[in-house]
Write a structure and sequence with these properties.
Layout (H helix, E strand, L loop, with lengths): L2 H13 L18 H12 L6 H10 L4 H9 L11 E8 L5 H11 L2 E3 L5 H11 L17 E12 L10 E5 L8 E9 L10 E5 L3 E7 L6 E7 L10 H9 L2 E4 L2 E5 L1 E9 L1 H7 L14 E14 L3 E14 L15 E7 L4 E8 L5
Parallel strand pairs: 1-2
Antiparallel strand pairs: 1-3, 3-13, 4-5, 5-10, 6-7, 6-9, 7-8, 11-12, 12-13, 14-15
Helix pairs in contact: 1-8, 2-3, 2-4
Family: Belongs to the serpin family.
GO molecular function: serine-type endopeptidase inhibitor activity
Protein name: Serpin domain-containing protein
C-alpha cells in the first residue's frame, strides 16, 4: 500500500474526531495535504534517534525504515520536472542544528537550511512565496529562539484536459445534511464523451458504497477523483484500502455524465499535534541527531483548494516546531563595577603568569 495514502486516511480519521462540535454532524470542510505533512515528517526523521523516536515517525508515515521514508519523499522532489504543475519545497530554520542533520536533509530531501534564529515573518514570507500567495500567516508567533522550525510548502496548479463549459454551470441546491436546509451552489456539468475529439468517456468505478469518476488534468501525471458516497454511507468510513479498490477497479471510457460544484475550501491553521501523537509521534522523544535538547512542540498545517471550470489550484504548508526539551541556562551577565581579580594564565600548563587584585582601576 502507498504509505502516503495510508497516512492520509489515518489522519482523516483522527481529524474527524471533533470533541468540540456541538452537533452530531460536522459540516466543516476538511482539506489537508498528506504530501506536505509527510515531507515534514521526513525532515524530522533525520533528526530522530533510532529506537522509539524514529519508530514513532515510521508508524505515522506507514514506512518500514528511514530509507523507504526518504524514497517516497524524493518522488516529489523538485527535480522530478513537475515544478510547473506541482512544487514541494522543504526548509529548516535553526541555529542549533547538528552538521550531520544539515547534510542529510540537504542531500536527501533537497531542503533549504537557514542557520539563523527562526522568526514568523521570515518563515511566513517563504511559505507565501512558495505557495503563490495562497498560504499566508502560517505562524502567528515567533518560534523559540533556541528551537527549530521544520517547514514544507506544496503548490499545485493544473487545468482540466478539457474545460467544463461555463455555460453549463447552473445554480442548484446542495444538501449538507438532513438537519439543515440545502445551500445554493454553482454546479458544473460535464457530459460524456468528456473528450469530444477522442470520443472517450470517464474512467469510472462504482459499488454499493460509492461512485467514483476521474477527471483528467492537462498534465498526464495528474487527475482528480470525485467520490460520491451512496445515501447513508459516511465519508469517514472510507480507508486507504477502499482507495486502492477504486483505482484498481476503474472502468475506462465509461459513458455517463458528471456534475459537481465549483468550490473553494480552506482549512487551518490547524494544530495537529494531538492527532499526530495519537498516530504514534513521540513528542518528548530523542531528537538529538537534529540538535541538542530538542523535542516536538507542535505540528501545524494550513491548506486551501480552488476548483472551477478551468481546473484546480491548491496549496498547503506544514510546520513542525521543535522546542528545547531541557531548560536552557540564561546567558550570564557580568559587570565588574566593584573590585575584581585579573589573571594572565599560561593555558598549556595552567600556570598563573600575572595576578592582580584591582580595587581602583585607573588608566
Amino acid at each position: 500500500m502507498n504509505p502516503i495514502n495510508a497516512f492520509a486516511f489515518a489522519l482523516l480519521e483522527e481529524l474527524s474526531i471533533d470533541t468540540t462540535s456541538s452537533t452530531d454532524y460536522d459540516i466543516t470542510n476538511t482539506v489537508v495535504s498528506p504530501l506536505s505533512l509527510f515531507q515534514t515528517m521526513a525532515i524530522a526523521a533525520y533528526g530522530a534517534k533510532e529506537g522509539d523516536t524514529l519508530d514513532g515517525i515510521l508508524n505515522v508515515t506507514h514506512t518500514k525504515d528511514l530509507e523507504q521514508l526518504c524514497d517516497v519523499s524524493r518522488d516529489f522532489d523538485n527535480s522530478t520536472g513537475d515544478g510547473d504543475v506541482l512544487l514541494s519545497a522543504n526548509a529548516v530554520w535553526s541555529n542549533v542544528l547538528m552538521e550531520s542533520f544539515i547534510d542529510d536533509v540537504k542531500s536527501n530531501l533537497n531542503a533549504e537550511v537557514f542557520p539563523e534564529v527562526p522568526t514568523k515573518d521570515i518563515i511566513n514570507a517563504w511559505v507565501e512565496r512558495k505557495t503563490n500567495h495562497l498560504i499566508k500567516d502560517l505562524l502567528s508567533s515567533d518560534p523559540p529562539a533556541n528551537g527549530a522550525a521544520l517547514v514544507n510548502a506544496v503548490y499545485f496548479k493544473d487545468e482540466w484536459k478539457k474545460s467544463f463549459m461555463k455555460s453549463f454551470t447552473k445554480e442548484t441546491e446542495f444538501q449538507t445534511n438532513d438537519n439543515e436546509p440545502p445551500m445554493k451552489v454553482e454546479m458544473m456539468v460535464a457530459a460524456s464523451p468528456y473528450d469530444e475529439t477522442a470520443q472517450k468517456g470517464f474512467d469510472y468505478y462504482s459499488d454499493d458504497k460509492v461512485q467514483v469518476a476521474v477527471v483528467p488534468y492537462a498534465h498526464e501525471d495528474f487527475d482528480a477523483l470525485v467520490a460520491l458516497p451512496a445515501e447513508g454511507v459516511s465519508m469517514d468510513s472510507f480507508t486507504a484500502s477502499d482507495f486502492d479498490t477504486w483505482t484498481e477497479g476503474l472502468v475506462q471510457n465509461k459513458q455517463g455524465s458528471l456534475s459537481f460544484p465549483k468550490f473553494k475550501a480552506e482549512y487551518g491553521v490547524k494544530d495537529m499535534t494531538d492527532a499526530f501523537q495519537h498516530l504514534g509521534l513521540v513528542l518528548d522523544g530523542d531528537y538529538s541527531k537534529m540538535g541538542p535538547g530538542l523535542r516536538v512542540g507542535s505540528v501545524l498545517h494550513k491548506a486551501v483548494i480552488k476548483v472551477d471550470e478551468n481546473g484546480t489550484e491548491a496549496a498547503a504548508a506544514s510546520a513542525m516546531m521543535m522546542l528545547t526539551a531541557m531548560p536552557v541556562e540564561p546567558p550570564f551577565h557580568m559587570v565588574c563595577n566593584r573590585p575584581f581579580m585579573f589573571i594572565v594564565r599560561h593555558k598549556p600548563t595552567n600556570s598563573i603568569v600575572f595576578i592582580a587584585k584591582i580595587k581602583q582601576p585607573t588608566v
